[in-house]
Amino acid sequence: MEYQSLKPRKQAKFYDAHSSALILFEAAQRYFKEQYIESGFSISEWKDKRAKLLTERSKVYREYIAQNEKFEGAYSIRREAENILRDLNRPQQQRSTRDRGMAR
């Protein structure tokens, strides 16, 4: 960190100029130490956990895609059934006009 590499008399001036960023950095550093370093959490464990979570996310996403395809199929069947019912409920003359137009 640039702040720590400065001479003590320049540190005060630097701290005044960048106090908000330094306060946020120090708070984040304390939080990280409390959550991970002091609890014995190592980088290799973190990488292993990340790899496991990525694998799990990939699996869940594939399941989502499969379910979404099933849903789209069911939705298109429902839409076609509604169109058929709508056609059956129309008066006979309108249906025959429509059917003749499709036969051409």
Describe this protein's structure.
This protein is mostly helical and 104 residues long. The protein has 2 domains: 1-40; 42-104. 88% of the residues lie in helices and 0% in strands. The protein contains 5 helices and no strands. It has helices spanning 2-5, 8-17, 19-37, 43-89, 92-103. The longest helix has 47 residues, at 43-89. The chain is elongated. The mean pLDDT is 81.
Q: Which secondary-structure class do the elements indicate?
A: mainly alpha
* Radius of gyration computed on alpha carbons: 33 Å
Average pLDDT taken over every residue: 81
Order of helices and strands: HHHHH
Individual helix count: 5
Number of strands: 0
- Give the biggest beta sheet: none
Q: Helix proportion of residues, in percent?
A: over 70%
Assign an overall shape: elongated
Counting structural domains, the number is: 2
In whole angstroms, the N-to-C terminal distance is: 79 Å
Q: Low-confidence segments, ≥5 residues, pLDDT <50?
A: none
Strand content: under 5%
List the helices and strands and how they pair.
Blueprint: H1 2-5, H2 8-17, H3 19-37, H4 43-89, H5 92-103
